[in-house]
Amino acid sequence: MLELSIPQLGESTKNAKDLVITLLSQEQPLSIIELTNKIKKQYVVSITYQAVRKAVDNLNNQNVLTKTGKRYAISKDWLLQLKSFFDKLLTNYENRTTLKLFNAEFAKEDYALYTFNNLYDLDNFWDEVMTHWADHEKENKDYYSYTHYHWWLVINLGKETKLFTNFKKKKINSHVILRNVSPLNRWAGSVYADMDVKIIENIQKDDFPMVDINILGNTVIQVNYPPNLAKKLQLFFKKYKSVQEMSLKEITQLAHEPGDIKFILFKNPTIVRNMVRSFKP
Description:
By secondary structure, this protein is of the alpha+beta class. It has helices at 16-26, 32-43, 49-61, 76-93, 119-136, 151-155, 157-169, 183-194, 227-239, 248-255, 269-279, and strands spanning 30-31, 65-68, 71-74, 111-116, 142-147, 173-178, 198-201, 211-216, 219-224, 261-267.
């Protein structure tokens, strides 16, 4: 259960907890004495060290903050929970709780919907979700990637390498399913194989609308691409035979190509088991 603590950010608030979060959103980590001095200086508020310490202790007990030594920072877990809560709230408000590929039974499961405007922003968030899962998963450490085109390797090879190096360190059992054997996908497969990822070939025709799937333990990630962006990805991967042929300009254009991309998270062990069986040729 999320203990929701929603701060009123900005200079108008005089609440100690709100001021602490406001400051930490701009600069972190900070100690209690640093927070006290900055609140007095920046917001011209008469506040005591004891009041700030009490506010920090409450936020820390609510898992809003994390403590390293004598310094505090905003918890990434809390931020992800808060974002998930508001995304679900917005989804319900806009009457979009019935999503493509979900039936009434699936809608009972925990899920969240996120929308991104380009591949670059999507990749950054996707990486954060996978890193968070790898760092916290204790039981089901199986990962499967069933995707059309491995565009994230083209956009940011370094980030993907770092991610799967962490996966290996955390003893994640990683599997990448190659849906097609275009030269760039073959190259992607070799990159993953070098990082001890198991490669499975299951050749399929491209789906339209294009949907990519990741499985992280008992969690499913479903990414829905708009038709115009899906077509550009397909043409890009058909055009080039190697990464050496690609220009930085075209890669940048692809990364920032506008489109309404849906990123869906939901948990359902039964669906996961059925999907994993379908991945094998």
